[in-house]
Structure formats: structure tokens, C-alpha cells
């Protein structure tokens, strides 16, 4: 009896060990890609949209073989919308010696993390279009530059005949970047007829901007640019509506999320414009190469499978996510940070949902002003209407 019990116990132990080993092997076989995002705090609208987009991408990638047979697994870190916390999270990630890290979501957090990786890696793929990495560095960034967004936006205003504009930017890193970018765009010869009738600022912790909006209203602008990302822009939108400022309003693509449009519905400006990547354009049109159409169709079908539609917030993660998957599939999951950096730096004619990436012509980013369109929020349809050609030229009425 004792001998039989020992055999049963030994057999059970072996079976348990084999089962544990199987699960352990499966877990360690995953390709883990660390992502630092603003999942809580004032920028959570954007961070959560990016997280959800990556979760859908993960399912699509793994259904298509993963990274050379290894399942893709994202591990998310919450920087709580704080640069200090972003550095803490990034430091924790770097201790594992990865080849690549995605995020953070916002300019201030990306700029805080960049010095940790800029010279020796790993590759950092920031989600914010508002940083401008050094050519050849390990820092890459998503979307079309805020300078090019401003270029398309001002071109649209000018060609619509809206030459008296007011500008309001937040005093944080995102707002400062936007203000510098708009200043450079307004100095272009083509924009010499544009007049900035008022330029005001606000702090992202302000609970009211009534005084600034009254100054803007008194200046009688034909259009208004209100540039801040996430919860702070709600304060601006409320001020615009309460003051009865009825002019076209434009804001950053970082606010182009369904979650924000739903929560802010009661106080959204009537005419609200956003620069957007070309993913939002009709993929059936003649302007896209077949490979870009295929990428857009894959995007739309992935979201449609869960009865959802993509937004710009999600696309700021989807674009880098697909590029990194392609790079890892090409180089192999053991690729080093240097190999990944060099692969991206020399990438040309690479199809994505926003057009053809060209990192040689547009270092560290791959997309330029030709990849941006202007959109207008359609409250009735609860979607964004495309109102311009690429570069901001208004569509024919």
C-alpha cells in the first residue's frame, strides 16, 4: 500500500511538473513589448484609446502567427499623466534590458524619458506627435509632426478666407510645442495675410478660462485654435460655449477620441476641427496605393469585429505598433535595439494606415504634411467628416 502510494505521488508530481513546465514555456515564449501610457490622470482619454488599440492589434497579430510564431504580449505601465512617474516606469522597464519600449503618450512624459534611451537605446517609440527627436537617435515618434499639423490647419483657414485668427495654448510642454510650431508656420510667405488677433495661455490645472476667452471674443477672430490635450481642453470648450464665441474652433489630434466627444457633448463648439492621419479617409478612393488600402481595410475590419470604429487616439498607437511588428518579423524576435533603430531609420515606401512611411525623408517619424487631412466633428453622425485634401487644401464644396 505504501509503495503504491509512493508511485501515485511520484506520478502526480511528474504530471504536475510537466503541466507547470508547459505553461512556463508558453509564457516565456511570448514576445513581451513594454508600453508606458497615461492610463489615469488628465490624459487618460488618450492613453486608454492607445491601450485599447494595441490590445486589438495584439489579437490580430497573434491570429496571424505572432512574431515568427511567438505570441505578442503587451505589458502596460501607467505613468499617471506625470513626467516623474513616467521616468520611474521607464526605469523599471529598462532594468529588463528590452530592445524596444513604446510610449509614453504625451510630450512632457516622452521628453522626460528620452534622455534615458536617446544615445544607447532601447528604441523608444513615443506616441506623441509633439516631440522632435534627433536624427539617428533611438527615439522615434508617432503621427504627423505638430508643426505639419499646424501647417495644414493654417492652410485650411487661409484658403477658407479665415485670416483673422486667435490662438490659445496651454503652458505645459504640449502647448509650448504647439505655440512654437504655429509661430514657425505663420512666418511662411504664403501666410503673410494671416493676422493673429489674440494669443492667450492657460494652465492645465485652471478651472476657468473665462477671462482669456473674453479677450479672444473681443478681438473678433474668424477662427480660433485651442491647443491642449485631454481633460484640460474641456475647460476651454466650456469657456467658448459659455462666452458665446461662435467661430470655427480647431484643436490637436490628441483630442480626437470618441470617449472625449461623448463626455464633452454638452459643451463642444459647434464647428470643431481636428487634423488627422489619413486612416480616416475612404480607403476605396483612388488616392491610395493598394498596400495602403490593404492596411486600412485590416484596421477597419479589426475594429468592426468588436463593433467599434477607430479614432485618432488609437491610431497614434496602431501606427507604431504595426511598424514594430513588421520590423520584428523581418529581423526576428532576438533583434537588438541597434538593429531595430537601423531598420526603422532606413525604412522607405512602407505601407501603413496613414500612407507610405519614409523615414529617410522624414527621420524618426516617417510621415509628413502630405499625410494629414482636416476633419470636422459631426455631432449628428457621431463621427468626423473629412473636409480637406492632404496638406489641408479644402475639399470642393
How many strands, which pairing sense, and closed or not: the largest β-sheet? 7 strands, mixed
Terminal Cα separation, in Å? 91 Å
- The helicity comes to 40-55%
Q: Predict the CATH topology of the domain at 146-277 and 371-392.
A: Rossmann fold
* N-to-C SSE string, H for helix and E for strand: HEHEHEHEEHEHEHEHEHEHHHEEEE
Low-confidence stretches: 7-26
Radius of gyration: 23 Å
- Secondary structure category: alpha/beta
The tally of beta strands, per DSSP, is 14
* Beta-strand percent range: 15-25%
CATH-wise, what's the superfamily of the domain at 146-277 and 371-392?
Answer: Response regulator
CATH architecture heading of the domain at 146-277 and 371-392: 3-Layer(aba) Sandwich
Number of helices: 12
Task: Give your account of this protein's structure.
The chain is an alpha/beta fold and 397 residues long. The protein has a domain of 154 residues: Rossmann fold. Helices cover 43% and strands 17% of the residues. A seven-stranded mixed beta sheet has the order 7-6-8-9-10-13-14, with helices on both faces. Helix 8 links the parallel strand 8 and strand 9. The protein is globular and about 60 Å long. The termini are far apart.
